[in-house]
Design a protein that fits this description.
Low-confidence stretches: 17-23, 224-229
Radius of gyration: 17 Å
Order of helices and strands: HHHHHHEEHH
Strand content: under 5%
Number of strands: 2
Number of helices: 8
Length: 229
């Protein structure tokens, strides 16, 4: 799967609630905060990589990986930083799940549960772990997991198994724009997306293009202190 498509889909998927409703009683507030910090680092690293690619002009939407063989040292360093961070987060998330089960909304809040899902999305180096988490999320009591999160991870797992995705969340570059990876029964994809509380596919693709253009601008690179410009 194209690297840019993965990055943009991840950034779009992470755009869920980031504030905690006052009425929600979180059982493990310290764990919630830890997950939010992990999510913050995850996104900062990916935005930095996209911005570095933009700086080097390595942002083709032609279906190929954005990291060219002759990539600059800065791009390669940014890519390794993302990979190292994913590995670290995956190990910690395994510990969390082993102790608490899937960290749903009642345990870590709406935003904490969103953060946990995002970290699983980026655990592509351990497909068995992703499948385990998908099973836990799907089996969670109603209201504990956002349906859209299940849709994203379902697509990720299906494509990794060489199958077609169901919801069109995973993208690839083609002809200078984004296209979904192969979709099962594409005529009914919007119906399935609506059932998971998601916008129509065409709207999702438009947003993906906007996000891509935003984060590949050189000025999008996070400042040395990790904050966004």
């Amino acid at each position: 799967m194209g690297l840019i498509g993965l990055l943009v889909a991840s950034l779009l998927g992470a755009a869920g609630p980031t504030t905690l409703p006052a009425a929600v009683q979180v059982k493990l507030p310290a764990l919630r905060q830890e997950l939010l910090e992990m999510e913050k680092k995850d996104q900062a690293a990916r935005i930095a990589m996209l911005a570095e690619m933009g700086t080097q002009g390595q942002t083709p939407l032609d279906g190929k990986s954005a990291v060219k063989p002759a990539a600059s040292n800065a791009v390669l360093a940014a890519t390794r930083a993302v990979e190292d961070l994913d590995r670290k987060h995956r190990m910690r998330l395994r510990e969390i799940i082993g102790r608490h089960g899937w960290p749903g909304k009642s345990l870590v809040g709406t935003d904490g549960a969103q953060a946990a899902w995002l970290l699983v999305q980026h655990s592509d180096q351990d497909r068995d772990f992703q499948k385990q988490c998908l099973s836990l999320m799907t089996a969670s009591p109603k209201g504990e997991v956002d349906a859209s999160n299940i849709a994203y991870l379902t697509d990720r797992v299906l494509l990794a198994e060489g199958k077609k995705q169901r919801y069109g969340t995973q993208l690839q570059g083609e002809g200078g724009t984004f296209k979904p990876r192969p979709i099962e029964d594409p005529a009914n994809v919007d119906k399935r997306r609506a059932e998971m509380g998601m916008e129509p596919l065409a709207e999702y693709l438009r947003t993906a293009q906007e996000v891509y253009q935003k984060f590949t601008r050189p000025e999008a690179k996070p400042k040395p202190d990790g904050t966004k410009p």
